[in-house]
User: Fold these one by one.
Assistant:
Number 1:
Amino acid sequence: MKIGIYTIHAAYNFGAMLQAFATQYIIKSFDIEAEIVNDSPHEKLNAYLTNNTSLKAIIKNLYALTNPLIWIKSKRFRDFHKSMSLSKKYKSINDIYKNPPKYDIHLVGSDQVWNLEHKVDKQYYYFLDFVPKGEKCISYASSFGNSNISQSVYPQLQQLLSKFNKLSTRETGGVSLIKQATGQDATLVLDPTLLLTAKQWSKLISQKPIIKGKYILYYGFDKSENCHQIIKNLRSSLQLPIVAISVSTTTPYKFDKFIQAAGPKEFINLFKYASFIITSSFHGVAFSINFQKDFVVMQHGTRMERIESLLDIIGQRKRIISSVQELNELFKNNKNIDYQKCSIAIAEKRNESIKWLKKALLENN
């Protein structure tokens, strides 16, 4: 049996690349051959160069070209990407539509592959609409990003999902959306990064901490002054330096240390050895939980559904804050997370998710 995995795998983004790795890792642990469909053939030596000709883009390109740390960061992503089993390179997604890959099972997921705002070449590639009728299709932890979509899309969604033999998603909102739009039942499962234990992730990295001593790790996207005040307040309260990591080449605030050249392995290392974590990222929350870290989540816009769904599994939605006042209230009541309870909830959901995936792959229908 051979599985083709369709996912966001080549983006220079920590969560995207790590979830792709984890999906393949788990399937291979079932003694099933699996490869990621290589729909991103144009490997960039420097991921931060752009073809945009605006003045702002030209300045960014000059910065990326002359900063050695950016080249190191790009190489670290490329090297990690090479650790995955990939199919032959397709010149474009159009080539996949013209000549669909041959697999026993086509699996899509995880990450925001079903975000309807992120169409690929105006085609619904991650809905596998190019796969010939009758071939087995499965979704694992596929995310809509935001399940609050117009009902006018429901008929199209029903048609796109009708070919799937088994459906799963990583958000409760996604489960509800699929039921409402198509009448089909979908299963709530964990993101692939949580299918691997902390011990399994640790085997991939150096056991030497990148940062010596205790530190607060910041990994987020918020650029507001409110977020800045929360970061400063945490630094003062915990009396620890702030170390920042980002997929970008810069950060909006001044930190004690910014790890500009971090790749996926450095990302794991920094989460593993952090004393406390501030994040607004779904995968930032996932790795905080996996390494049993105390953390807070910055309220980031209105699209918090993915994070809320994950936090609900461990009963920790209160970790989401939007002000210094809420941070102080959290610290006053319960600064530390009871991982004795949370780890049991995650372990149970991990086992359920792995069993679901294995059964979905091995069933005959």
Number 2:
Amino acid sequence: MIAALLLLSFATAGNVTTPEQDFEQGVSLRENARAARESFARAARGFDRAWGESPSPGLAVARGRSHFLAGNLPQSLAALHAGLALAPYDAELQADLRAVRGTIRYPEPADPNLRVRPDEWGGLRSRVSPWDAYFVGITFGIVAVVGSIFFFTTRPRWSGVVAIVGWVGVVASAALAWKIGNTEVRPVAIVTTDTVLRRGNGTSFQPRTPEPLPRGTELWEVGSRGGWLQVELPGGAIGWVPEQTVLK
């Protein structure tokens, strides 16, 4: 009996695959859509566990792609947003977010306040990382120190200008790094199924938009009450959706 259990445990252990292997298997099964989605779903679960232990931009990319190829559009968007919250300047994450958004059919209401299509990922944090600012600051610091040394020793004409430029650059770089690191990231709620945005927290309230919000719509959370979530559209309009219809 014990020998049989040991053999079973070894056989089970031999069938354990890594998320990377599950993803590759999904790619190899592209002629069998159902089997491929199952492999991508296993990969997504594995990458999700790894993210919980040690998040990184690379893992966010893997999570986003695995969930998307498994057919889990909202989870894919949530994974990409989690990665961009960690590294908003990551070009690969930005490209994947644009690609996933490109699969969603957003309604185009006449009122710009009711716009559902999200803004392009942008802003200072999307182009410059804190490490870039630190590197520039260190470079300016070296220039400032060299200029100051020459100014207080041999006093060549250029040394004062170099020292001033260097110290101004250090201060500007420090301010930039602080601004990037302290930019507030608003919590995103992602619609998991086509749902009606209402004017109040209940089905008795009139719809806020002419069409239901499509699956994958990205909203900003404002507040909650009685099982309903108050959200803001990319266009600025505010309404309510049931909490069970969004992924936070």
